[in-house]
UniProtKB/TrEMBL annotation:
One of its GO terms (molecular function) is transferase activity. Transmembrane segments: none annotated. Residues 86-207 form the GST C-terminal domain. It comes from Achromobacter pulmonis. This is Glutathione S-transferase. Belongs to the GST superfamily.
């Protein structure tokens, strides 16, 4: 059976859990990470030298990096609806997966740590403001995209791109700061909440 290593509160572990829910894929999960077994243990480092969650073990196959994991799961376990085989459709999904992992994530990192996690190491007011502004700008890009599609990030159908972006949208709404009104993002947030996997692993009160 598929094994997932990582605590269920981690946003990147939740990508994997939500994807498994969409695929109806059974798994076992072990708690690793802050507050649980340390990822600096030699046994974990042998699986992922970056000491980060999640990691999966699918038989003798080991994989880390959350977006790579969800791509693999969809490809391996009949998730063509989530990750299309047609090159142009797949490239559109990949585009938004990569955007979430790079541009969007970098924008909210400092503000999230300061405002949601109350990190003592993130107290620079100017850095917080800059992060909030950058985050708002990228969320504006997402709002424009959702206005175009009227549905999901890569188009009319739900895909892996929505797993990654949807969890970031949840974090956007749960981080306390003065946000611009983004009607298409708000509608998207409610649309995702119609999916059981998102209610379990995304919009579940965990930031």
């Amino acid at each position: 059976m598929l094994k997932i290593l990582g605590k269920a509160s981690s946003i990147n572990v939740r990508k994997v859990l939500w994807t498994c829910a969409e695929l109806r894929l059974p798994f076992e999960r072990e708690d690793w990470g802050s507050g649980f077994r340390p990822t600096q243990e030699p046994g974990f480092l042998a699986l992922n030298p970056n000491a980060m969650v999640p990691v999966i073990q699918d038989g003798d196959f080991v994989l880390w990096e959350s977006n790579s994991i969800i791509r693999y799961l969809a490809s391996q376990y009949g998730g063509q609806a989530l990750y299309p085989a047609e090159p142009k459709l797949r490239a559109r999904v990949d585009q938004w997966l990569d955007w979430q992992a790079s541009d969007l994530n970098r924008s909210w990192s400092y503000a999230f740590m300061a405002l949601a996690r109350q990190s003592a190491a993130h107290r620079d007011a100017a850095a917080i403001e800059a992060s909030c502004q950058a985050w708002s700008r990228f969320m504006g890009i997402l709002d424009q995209r959702l206005q175009q599609t009227g549905a999901y990030v890569s188009g009319a159908a739900f895909t892996l791109a929505d797993v990654a972006v949807g969890l970031s949208v949840n974090r956007w709404f749960l981080t306390p700061f003065d946000k611009p009104r983004l009607p298409a993002v708000e509608a998207y947030y409610d649309r995702l909440a119609e999916r059981e996997g998102y209610r379990q692993h995304g919009r579940n009160g965990t930031v």
